[in-house]
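This protein record is not my work; I was only asked to verify it. Where you disagree with what is written, explain briefly why. This is what I was given:
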Amino acid sequence: MIEMQDVWKTYPDGSHALKGISVKVDRNEFVYVVGPSGAGKSTFMKLIYREERPTKGTIFVNGFNLEKLKQRKIPYVRRNIGVIFQDYRLLPKLTVFENVAFAMEVIEAPKKIIRKRAMEVLDLVKLKDKLHSLPTQLSGGEQQRVAIARAIVNNPSVIVADEPTGNLDPDTSWDIMKLMEEINFRGTTIVMATHNKEIVNTMRKRVLAVESGKIVRDEIRGEYGYED
């Protein structure tokens, strides 16, 4: 599903965010990316959905070589990658339904299909009763569930989640993780960067530990391994 081959990322100021990363993530895997702040986790995540491009190396996602991808193909590849952020990034003037539907409108899906699919995912995240609410009328956990619904509405094969529980209280964080586990169970590959030690140590998925731009640990049913 995802493969990086000797991937380096150097920023204009000369800092090396990633140094020779090589890793494979199989279909239907659930992978945690952990490590200290500034280790290169966010850069690693951004490379998967082509927000950033590597300085050197090769990245395959869903069978596509991201470096050889023609510009017109980028939206098609991104359609198959759902992205979830720590700060939700909902459109403030749109309702819950409109935020989710918007992700299908940009790919010009028929209105009838948009309505049906948006309602399906809002049912999955238990927000059908909030259809007409604006983001400001929701709790943090509800906003994140809208963000998850938006990320999965186009049936992506991969979800990239960058600190999705970072702004949430412990109980709400667990609700979000149960939802993520359900999405993974339904067949979606999930790559999630997190600082939440309790979640990683309890759920025991594959763990990639990144330090100073390198993968220093790759463990099946791994632990968090840091004190922060």
About this structure: The beta strands are 2-10, 16-25, 30-34, 56-61, 64-65, 81-85, 158-162, 189-193, 206-211, 214-219. The two ends are 30 Å apart (CA to CA).
